[in-house]
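Order emerges. For instance:

***
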Amino acid sequence: MAIAVGSQNDAVISVNYLIAKADMTIATLIAIALGLGVIVGVLAILSSWLTLRVKLLRVQAKLKKLQKE
């Protein structure tokens, strides 16, 4: 699938972003955007998981304390 998309999108375009300007193929731009999207998604999931893990540890500690009483 990726090879088909890359082979059909070989036109060079000029991309202006905040600090620079670059000439790249559309396939490269799609790959960069997809990669950044995956990284942002994984970071969001890890952040949520870490928050839930901390809450779980707190509740487990509280339960352990209550069971000792």
Summary: The first helix runs from residue 2 to 8. Residues 40 and 46 are 10 Å apart (CA to CA).
